[in-house]
Amino acid sequence: MCGIFGIIQDQLDPELVVKATRTIRHRGPNDEGYLLVSRDQTEVIACIGDDSQAELRLPHIQSFSSKRYHMAFGFRRLSILDLSINGHQPMCDKNENIWVILNGEVYNFVEIRQELIKAGYEFNSGSDTEVILNSYLEWGTDCFVKFTGMFAIAIFDRRKHSLILARDPFGIKPLYYSVTADKFAFASEIKSLVQIPWVPREANYSFVGKYLSFGISDIAPETAFNGIDALKPGCFLVVDLENVTNKQETVYWEITRDPEAAKLDYESATHRFRELFEESVRIHMRSDVPVGVSLSGGLDSSSILETIHHATDHTLGLHAFSFIADNPELCEEKWVDMVCHDTGTISHKTHITGDDFSELMDRMIYSLDEPFGGSSMFAQNQVFQLARQNNVTVLLDGQGSDELLGGYRDHMGDRLASVMLSGNPIETISMLSKMRAKGFSQLSKYFAWAIDRALPESVRPSTWMYNIKSMYPAVSDSWNSRLSGRVPHGFFRNKVQQYSSREILNEQLKYETFQAGLPALLRYEDRNSMAYSIESRVPFLTTSLAQFCLSLPESYKISTDCVSKRILRDAMSDRLPPPIKNRKDKIGFAPPEKEWMFQNSEKVKSIFKSGVGDTVPFFDRAKALSWFDNHLQTGKYDRRIWYTINLLLWTEKFNIHYPEIV
């Protein structure tokens, strides 16, 4: 796991490259590397920085003050595989024609390395970066589809005068870029890009409208910043060094249906799921530094820990890190203790108080680069800090399981829609009855949800969608229609589009995995872990496992008995303690957000009253204060209060400008 930066512009100042790269030092405190390239490419100079090891015997970048360079790479290393100087980046081939920098890990590098050795390639390190380098030499851009992992890769191809950027199929690792008529830059984090004078610190109203209304974010390529895009997952981008506007984005991987998986009977599918999951956990354990588990006590993270214990060689001295809520209704400590006792795992726990929440706000706004969805990220942040305090550098996390296997309560509505579309009224009534028996409240909501998904697009009632204007309680009247217009017409229709099949749940899971939902959670995971120089790995998210899960019959994921993640529960039935296997509640790292916000009511009001509100043209301070006071008096809580606070703090922290709308 590392941080990468690159820039193409005439008269490039090396000091700017150093500044932008050191902004993301937290992503890689162990090493620092640079590459400077002249316009005619006759000069290609590898450099080191203050954090580099002296044994590298390369010139220091500060010895280059000339602005004659046209392209540069900056790199920060968090050493995970091959901790020696042999893993230093930027890394090149023996002819110095191909240069690579990597953020992330390619877990199947061992297998690909053996394939390349048979093809005649030699290796000087035990790193996955060298495998990427030789893979590109052997297969060109076709190499990306061979990688199982999380990665953002930049390649300078001197032969073709081009820059290639690639991102993993799920977007686990971030990669942002900005382009003008004659300049191009990319980075692992937006805070690095905005160090460049020509990159605007300007709000994107399309993002703002969706975020304030619904908390929606991270729909690539859009970001909160005008002029900054995210490279879409599963894509690579080729940029012409002579003309940066001449760039081409190509999809190298996208989810497809596996017809063989769809035909499997349940017993065979459960066996195959277990094989794929065990293999994923096994290769995710590859590391030359200590590995632990981010453990909530839920089904997903407990399954990872039990699989490590039963199916890998990493059984001694394993550490787990957990957030323990003070609120008894949200506390999962008994589940954490149960699985740690069962596996002999060393347990570490952290708590957060309302005072901690107040202190963490500013720090996390900066870490996450863009506004974010809720306070569970604070709990996650403290879990990673706890791991750093205990010198564990790699954590495995259960992210992605809910999206692949139907783990959220609202997925019951999607499953119900599929049952309704099957044309079996008895099965539909039976499922509704089971939902009631299992404690699902507001059955009318789920039934209406299911009807909406089951109806063709042409006859769906328009009333299912919120009136967008009503979603902006703290926005001035004159801006309501303007911001509403920035939410694309039909945006939420696309979420429940007329599906290509009658499997509403499967289509919804694909949407949440690759378009909206999981991408935001992966950003939070990346920034929170990297803030403490921790590599967070997500073994549920491999292309083979995702394709398998999303191709299975829906009943293998959610049964008509309303058992969610059915196949995971049964695949782990002989490993998980029965109380965890049979858990029906879902908490995760869930802090008491309402209590924290009300406990810090004076801080909330001070944010509303601060001068930053004057820089946000649509913010109505009086409305915001009245709105919040009403919630304090009634004891109710509205998540949009958090969205408003978050937006204001983000505006202040990143010095955001809001352009005029004509």
From TrEMBL:
Signal peptide: none annotated. GO terms for cellular component: cytosol. It catalyses: L-aspartate + L-glutamine + ATP + H2O = L-asparagine + L-glutamate + AMP + diphosphate + H(+). Residues 2-242 form the Glutamine amidotransferase type-2 domain. Keywords: Amino-acid biosynthesis, Asparagine biosynthesis, ATP-binding, Glutamine amidotransferase, Nucleotide-binding. One of its GO terms (molecular function) is asparagine synthase (glutamine-hydrolyzing) activity. InterPro entries: Asn_synth_AEB (IPR006426), Asn_synthase (IPR001962), ASN_synthetase/amidase (IPR051786), AsnB_N (IPR033738), GATase_2_dom (IPR017932), Ntn_hydrolases_N (IPR029055), Rossmann-like_a/b/a_fold (IPR014729). It comes from the Bacteria. Belongs to the asparagine synthetase family. This is asparagine synthase (glutamine-hydrolyzing). The lineage of its organism: Bacteria, Bacillati, Chloroflexota, Anaerolineae, Anaerolineales.
